[in-house]
């Protein structure tokens, strides 16, 4: 499809707009330094794959950006505005799928999603209508009025995904979002991300499923021990590290080559040898 010159200008402007900027982000928990100075600028429309070993500080970064974790040093800017502990308005531009969520089991999906929609500034009717339509797309129209307590894991995850997008945010934080989704739903969700990114939404995608990160991200950021140790497209990382898959690059950059020895040790202990 040929873009008109006006559309080309809009695309260039969008690409230059900065959605997220982290400057010297540091965070300690007691004597443990979890983030040691994260500097990061994310352009609007990018899909960032944010990866790193367990405990590297990925969720901590996301929670700081969302204002869920205080007591850090450094700066967080969202669409050019510095986020402070008092800032609230910027949250309307953000959607979030947490790694672990407290869904209100006693509520129905309708009650929960309209509650979240209203928190994000939608009126009840709009939230109700959108929530019902989105549930239908995910094949959940029949349980819209059922309590979340009766949902399977994947059904809960779909409600979480809907709740993160109901207010049409510009910046989306996804922490292991595919958790519990079946293969068909994964396909739908990956397609949703591609369409959102094409519309200029910015997506920050944190996951351990390397082949998905490799495919959907146009920029991959690897953090290890509180620092960014790699930043680039998958092709760039592949060239720099002479490795074939993102999983292999991950192993190399985190200095890990003991999987066989560790597996054998584990099984030997299980067998009581
Ligand atoms: N509330 C807390 N109190 C104390 N330590 C914490 C707290 N939250 C996180 N940590 C520590 O901070 C470090 C980073 O945790 P974080 O959850 O950010 O890691 P992660 O990269 O998201 O890991 P994973 O891949 O396992 O989800 C870990 O060592 C963790 O124990």
Automatic annotation (TrEMBL):
Stored InterPro entries: AAA+_ATPase, ABC_transporter-like_ATP-bd, ABC_transporter-like_CS, P-loop_NTPase
Keywords on record: ATP-binding, Nucleotide-binding
Residue stretches making up the ABC transporter domain: 20-250
Pfam families: ABC_tran
Domain of life: Bacteria
UniProt GO molecular function: ATP binding
PANTHER family: ABC TRANSPORTER, ATP-BINDING PROTEIN
Protein name from the UniProt record: ABC transporter ATP-binding protein
Organism this protein belongs to: Neobacillus paridis
Lineage summary: Bacteria, Bacillati, Bacillota, Bacilli, Bacillales
